């Protein structure tokens, strides 16, 4: 059965799920949601996701939101051991990487972009940028010697994490990457199937939207 995925193409968590679907061989019907037009607050959307967030997955009569809950559910559904290991230690490590991605990397990126997009607040405190730099720096010790987040093969953790990291470094080029993180990002760009299709054009849109916000205030 083809699942249905609701989301915005510019959202890093949505792009992470789409990358994971491609890796896992999950077919999905993508329903675009316009967050700036208030789609998340419409009754028909709130009916499936009362938390009015993206992404949201519908699989028959089962509904699930939160990107990492979705990718792990799909990992189990696909039964792909390479992308979502069954070994409990590898899986625990993968879960840790996903939690770091959500609770630190994405949370800090959202704290940067939301005031700009939704409140036209362009006075970004320096410490907000520094927290993003710190989040990128702390990726360095958790990249496996095999070159990926969990081992010597990419997993759904790489799909989700790179959607955030690639966006952050594109919109804030003044941030620096430590050697292992820089090599990991290049590896994701070159080797993850669908990166150019799912990430590249929409990262460009996010960058352009932010630039327009700052340009309009000059």
UniProtKB/TrEMBL annotation:
Residues 87-214 form the GST C-terminal domain. It comes from the Eukaryota. Residues 1-82 form the GST N-terminal domain. One of its GO terms (molecular function) is glutathione transferase activity. PROSITE patterns: GST_CTER (PS50405), GST_NTER (PS50404). One of its GO terms (biological process) is glutathione metabolic process. Signal peptide: none annotated. CDD domains: GST_C_Delta_Epsilon (cd03177), GST_N_Delta_Epsilon (cd03045). Homodimer. This is Glutathione S-transferase 1-like.
């Amino acid at each position: 059965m083809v699942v249905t995925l609701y989301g915005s193409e510019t959202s890093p968590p949505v792009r992470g799920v789409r990358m994971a679907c491609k890796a896992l061989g999950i077919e999905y019907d993508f329903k675009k949601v316009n967050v700036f037009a208030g789609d998340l607050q419409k009754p028909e959307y709130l009916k499936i996701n009362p938390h009015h967030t993206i992404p949201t997955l519908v699989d028959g009569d089962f509904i699930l939101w939160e990107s990492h809950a979705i990718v792990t559910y799909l990992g189990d559904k696909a039964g792909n051991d390479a992308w979502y290991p069954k070994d409990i230690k590898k899986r625990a490590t993968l879960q840790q990487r996903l939690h770091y991605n959500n609770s630190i990397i994405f949370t800090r990126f959202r704290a940067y972009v939301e005031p700009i997009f939704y409140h036209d607040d362009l006075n970004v405190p320096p410490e907000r940028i520094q927290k993003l730099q710190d989040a990128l720096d702390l990726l360095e010790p958790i990249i496996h010697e095999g070159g990926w987040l969990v081992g010597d093969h990419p997993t759904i953790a790489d799909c989700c994490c790179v959607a955030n990291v690639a966006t952050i470094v594109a919109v804030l080029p003044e941030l620096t990457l430590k050697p292992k993180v820089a090599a990991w990002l290049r590896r994701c760009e070159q080797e993850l199937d669908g990166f150019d299709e799912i990430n590249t054009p929409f990262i460009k849109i996010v960058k352009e939207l932010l630039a327009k916000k700052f340009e309009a205030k000059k």
